[in-house]
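re: ur question from yesterday

yeah so i grabbed the chain u mentioned. its 220 aa long if i counted rite. heres the sequnce exactly as i have it in my notes:
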Amino acid sequence: MHRKSLIALIPFCFLTLTVSLVTGQTTTDDSTYRNRGKSWVRNDDLERAIKDSDIAIAFHPGSALAYYNRGVLLQARGEFNRALADYNKAIDINPRYTSAYNNRAGILYSIGRIDEALADCNRAIELDTNHAGAYTNRGVVRSAKGDFEGARADHTKALRLDPKLPTAYYNRGILELVRGELDAALNDFDRAIELAPSLDQVVAAAKKRLLQLSNSQRRN
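ran it thru and got these structure tokens back, copy pasting raw so excuse formatting
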């Protein structure tokens, strides 16, 4: 089976960063609403968290962090257009906002704007060469463009920077699978589940495809 055809059967995982607490000098009301929004996230109440983010932005409309945080929440709720607008605003305010580029890349990738997603990953890495998430995300984008060796190198780089990054193991496992390196793929999938049990169902689907490929190879 052609590599692109096989990869189309198994989804990659894009890593997005989460809401940040306020640091530095802010007004009391501003920081209160932003930090309370973080507590709503922990309680899985995105609607209340977004409302608090709205209030935080009203208090401090020049805060890149406030727009970034609301973008994260909207992205988690699947409101990609609104999240994209917030990441755009955060980057307009702070053109060196690495996490905003990284998360915006995820939205651009999900809506098929692959070249723009790659540009955002590149910019995130340019701003922070130790950003493991940006490397594994760029690996996902490179796979979409057919650059599988470049993608594998990015996931491996991410794991050198952060050996406990489950999405990088999972994503590299897919690439090992399509290269026919079945033992390496299995090892990466197992490590991904060990670090993030929530990936179990996703990895199970990949392992099923791995077994099918292994049986096919034995028949041939």
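noticed a couple things. Residues 80 and 107 are 6 Å apart (CA to CA). also The chain is about 75% helix and 0% strand.
anyway ttyl
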